[in-house]
Amino acid sequence: MNNATQIIKFTVTLLIAAFTTTAAMAHGDVPMNQDKCARYAAGNVVHFNAYQPEYDVKANYCGAIPKAGETIFVVDLVNTKLRKVPVALKIYSAGKGGEDTPLFESEPKVYQHGIIEAPLKIADNGGYLAQIIIKDASTQPPTMNYMVGKMPSGSMPMSWLLQIFVIAALGIMGFMALSPFIKRFRNKG
Prior knowledge:
The protein is α+β, with helices and mostly antiparallel strands. It folds into two domains: 1-30 and 156-189; 35-153, Macroglobulin (MG2) domain (Immunoglobulin-like, Sandwich). It is 25% helix and 35% strand. It has helices spanning 3-19, 158-188; strands at 38-41, 44-52, 56-61, 64-65, 69-77, 87-94, 100-105, 115-122, 126-134, 143-148. Strands 1, 2, 3, 5 and 8 form a five-stranded antiparallel β-sheet that branches. A five-stranded mixed β-sheet has the order 4-10-9-6-7, with no helix packed on it. A hairpin with a 2-residue loop joins β1 and β2.
């Protein structure tokens, strides 16, 4: 097998890996018990996310949201047991002096598909709290604190890193594939 064929096969493999995503890869390819977006209550797993499609259609956030604007809070009721009982989602703005301001509150209902969405216009940077209320649960409700306008230092979405790697790898492979032709062209002149 010649060098060009190997480079083409490697390139195709890289492209498939780069643009094929799974649910696990979207959260750092970690088990649910290590996922920073997951919360637990009474043996149930709830997965919190926030999206800002007006800024980045693919990025999802938990804990830190880059800036104020149109934000979709999404909660996944991971355990099927939670999909059979009434559940409500509440989102608060952390007010000054410890006073939380309710921004969104869904009616308690059964979410058979396990997805709860709350589209909101976040007006200001600052703290927000998403909370799941499980009807008739005697445990502390699962919550997720969000900080809008402050991304943790050193945070870069994994998809960006993967795309940068793929572009760099393709550039290097392209140079390697073309270098014999460049040498022949230079030797003729």
